[in-house]
Amino acid sequence: MKRLQSNLYFIFFILFIPALFLVSGLFLGKFAEFKNILYLAALVAVFIAAFIAINKSVDRFGGKFFYGGLICLSIVLLGLQLVHCLGSYTIPLKGDMEAMYTAVKEAVSYGELTDSVPYFLRHSHQMFTMFFYTVVNRIFVMLGSSDAVNMTGTVALNCLMTTTGGILLTFAVRRLSDEKFALFTMFLFAMCNSYWGSSAYLYSHPLSVFFLCLAIFCFTFCCTAEHKIAKAIWLVVSGIAFALCKSVEGITLIALIAALIYLFISAPSFKKFIFSAVAVVASFTVTVVMISTVYNVLGIIDTTNQEQEEIPLTHWIMMGFSETGTYQEDDYQATVNTPGKDAKLALHKKELARRISERSPDEMTKFLISKQKMDWLGKTYGEPVIFVDNSCWNFAYRFIMVITILLCSVVSFIKKWKNKSFDVDFAAFSRIYIMGIFLFFFIWECYTTYLFSSLPMIITCAVLSIYEITAKKSC
Q1: How many CB atoms sit inside 10 A of residue 217's CB?
Q2: Helix, strand or coil for residue 62?
Q3: Which end of the chain, N or C, is less packed with Cβ atoms under 10 Å?
Q4: For the CA atoms of 389, 206, 148, 100, what is the dihedral angle to 10 degrees?
Q5: HEC profile for 244-288?
Q6: pLDDT band at 339, cuts 50/70/90?
Q7: Residue 1: pLDDT above 80?
Q8: Do 445 and 320 touch, CB atoms closer than 8 A?
């Protein structure tokens, strides 16, 4: 089995490196803008200086500096979020965010949804987020809040959860590497300006950051547990964490798929892989079913017409092959106005086949590359409007993460090739996830919030990739 695992990891590298070359090339195409080069140079200098300072400080002061640095970076990140977000939630809400706000207000005020029922029957994937914020704001009301939706408290909680997510990610990386790389992870997390403004609204994206970090943390401890009982417990907990991820943001289901692939290519035997996979999938399935059961028992929403109203996943694939690959109001109205699941699926299948057949192979290739460009380079959810030119900062930050992963992966591939051994390291988990979102972007509707939800995994991959090629031991 070990030979099969090594061969599969070798094949993965052969696919992964060209994929990142493509993404890196798309970034390089935007460096015609001089200010992008300035931001890139500034961030690279800051990152290198921080990495050197963290290494020297940890060597000199040890664990005390790690915990002190983690506390300071957490306070900085929390402060940046609060400064921006508490002044931003007064911006008029629209679209999905307005629907979420209205639904939470109805659920807290009346104990059930009224005008918001059609939206959540159609977008059932937003139910967990709505339920979470409803519980939070009911607690605020019990504590004396006069508003059905206490935005100040909710936004502050979002900021705290994002910061906690960064701390969880830090301890996950520490488990796999050392205190230097772990603290550098928190530094990179705090420097990601998408997080500074992402907590200003009641929506799924702020929650997705925390729950993906939680899933990475749990799976890390699962894979590094030495005792059988501890490993079994972490496998179950990981399944629960992956289920919570999926309930908040569907794209993070890729994390579960990546985890299962990682378990297969790293398992000492096929029997142990089966045990691990069953434990994770079973706990994942039970958690998803339990969450759905809670919705029905509480009766917040009448699901009688859900079969007729719910929008199938094929809707977003159909939009992904529209003229631009982005959201189309005409597509949305066509789906909504088509009664019944079967009729909706038939509509999507017919329209999708037409859109694919109308493009030549050359046109399809250019179209798919343009989709990658929109997803990787587009404005990311949560960019702040204060302090810096946010689009340039975010562009430079994402490019640094991608090029770091690419260069380190090339070096890792060459080292493994020379050693004639493609042993699996934990960086494989995050690499598989990134490959997953790369493929996902080909078929799904273009929307840069999907990249936002995946940033914790991208940061983890960048740090572990550096550690993998510089450390004496493999992560």
Answers
A1: 24
A2: coil
A3: N
A4: 90
A5: HHHHHCHHHHHHHHHHHHHHHHHCCCHHHHHHHHHHHHHHHHHHH
A6: confident
A7: no
A8: yes
pLDDT tens track for 391-417: 778 888 999 999 999 999 999 999 888
pLDDT at 236: 96
Asked if 121 and 311 touch (Cβ cutoff 8 Å), the reply is: no
State the residue for tokens 């090629």. 469
Please, what sign has the CA dihedral across residues 283, 315, 97, 389? positive
Query: What string of H, E and C letters represents the secondary structure of 119-180?
Result: HHHHCHHHHHHHHHHHHHHHHHHHCCCCCCCCHHHHHHHHHHHHHHHHHHHHHHHHHHCCHH
Distance separating alpha carbons of residues 202 and 221, to the nearest angstrom = 31
The structure tokens listed for 174 are: 């520490």
CA distance 448 to 436: 15
Q: Quote the CA–CA distance of 399 and 34 in Å, as a whole number.
A: 15
Neighbours of 254 (CB within 10 A): 23
Q: How remote is the C-alpha of 249 from its chain's centroid?
A: 8
Q: What is the DSSP-derived secondary structure letter of residue 380?
A: P
Q: Please, are residues 244 and 168 in contact by the beta-carbon 8 Å criterion? A: no
pLDDT bin (cut points 50, 70, 90) of residue 388 is very low
Nearest C-alpha neighbor of 244 from the set 196, 209, 275: 209
Share above pLDDT 70 across residues of the chain, in percent, rounded to a whole number: 94
Q: How many CB atoms lie within 10 A of CB 255?
A: 28
Q: What angle do CA 143, 102, 90 make, to 5 degrees?
A: 75
Asked if pLDDT for residue 184 goes beyond 60, the answer is: yes
Instruction: Give residue 203's pLDDT band: very low, low, confident or very high (50, 70, 90).
Output: confident
- 72 pLDDT band (50/70/90 cuts)? very high
Tokens for 206? Answer: 């702020």
* Per-residue confidence (pLDDT) for residue 472, from 0 to 100: 58
DSSP H or E stretch at residue 2:
helix 2-28
Cβ atoms of 198 and 205 within 8 Å: the answer is: yes
Q: Which 3 state secondary structure label does DSSP give 401?
A: helix
Average pLDDT, the chain: 88
pLDDT score, position 28: 85
